[in-house]
Design brief:
Largest sheet: 9 strands, mixed
Keywords: Signal
CATH topology: Rossmann fold
Strand content: 15-25%
CATH class: Alpha Beta
GO molecular function, one term: hydrolase activity
Number of strands: 9
Number of domains: 1
Helix content: 25-40%
Radius of gyration: 17 Å
Number of helices: 6
Protein name: Prolyl oligopeptidase family serine peptidase
CATH architecture: 3-Layer(aba) Sandwich
Pfam families: DLH (PF01738)
Shape: globular
Strand order of the largest sheet: 1-2-3-5-4-6-7-8-9
Length: 241
């Protein structure tokens, strides 16, 4: 079985978990454990297209709130060296290679979820939370996947057919959050994702924040951001209890 190699990570007090000894230092999973021994439910978080390290304070706010409710949090850094090079030269999302990358990321996330559930601390319950591209990836990774009990997509579109290895026939209970002023992932994309979840029969909810743009929930003190984080934590708690 694939194992995690642990080492301390200074940034934001996370612990870096890598899938094997050959994994490079910028990949892997940042682990934010809840306090206390015993079994814990888990939340797996996925970053978006480009704001990763610079957005860690915002991701950490989510992690802190989930930790406070007794959940272990795993932040998956799903890019490898080739992805980071493509991101740096502006070609990551261009051409047919993107769909192949997306399928690779989906496999990486599914493997991470499998390993999370195998951890001695895990009670077997997992929520998957993704932002923007990571939200679309969360949908793909949770699709037809009994290892995921709750799905959250923040300003997320539904995966494209070319990005999937198989048709999506089932999703776990799903919460979607979107700002009506989003010009990166328009609200229409979030509404389409909601309609797709409805068609699949998943228990779902779409919360629209009037006038808010892409990344609105990354504000530390914004009213909509605070509400979004609270909704996410409450939803995850309900689904994983």
């Amino acid at each position: 079985m694939t194992h995690f190699k642990r080492k301390a990570l200074a940034m934001l007090a996370g612990i870096l978990l890598t899938f094997n000894a050959s994994a490079n230092a910028d990949s892997g999973v940042l682990f934010y454990p809840a306090t206390g021994d015993g079994k814990h439910a888990s939340a797996v978080m996925l970053h978006g297209y480009s704001c990763i390290d610079d957005c860690m304070p915002a991701f950490k706010r989510y992690a802190d709130m989930l930790n406070a409710q007794g959940l272990d949090v795993y932040f998956v850094k799903y890019y490898d060296d080739s992805d980071r090079r493509a991101l740096a030269d502006g070609t990551l999302d261009q051409g047919p290679a993107y769909a192949a990358r997306f399928k690779k990321w989906t496999g990486h996330v599914r493997a991470a979820i499998h390993n999370v559930k195998a951890q001695p601390r895990s009670d077997g319950h997992v929520a998957l939370l993704g932002f923007s591209q990571g939200g679309r990836l969360a949908i793909a990774s949770a699709a037809n996947n009994p290892d995921v009990q709750a799905l959250v997509g923040v300003y997320a579109a539904f995966p494209r057919t070319a990005e999937l290895d198989a048709d999506i026939t089932a999703l776990p209970p799903t919460l979607l959050l979107h700002g009506s002023g989003d010009t990166v992932v328009p609200l229409a994309d979030g509404e389409a994702a909601y309609a797709q979840a409805q068609a699949l029969g998943a228990a779902q909810e779409l919360v629209v924040y009037p006038g808010e743009g892409h990344g609105f929930d990354f504000s530390e003190k914004g009213k909509a951001a605070i509400d979004a984080r609270q909704r996410v934590v409450a939803f995850v708690q309900r689904q994983l209890k």
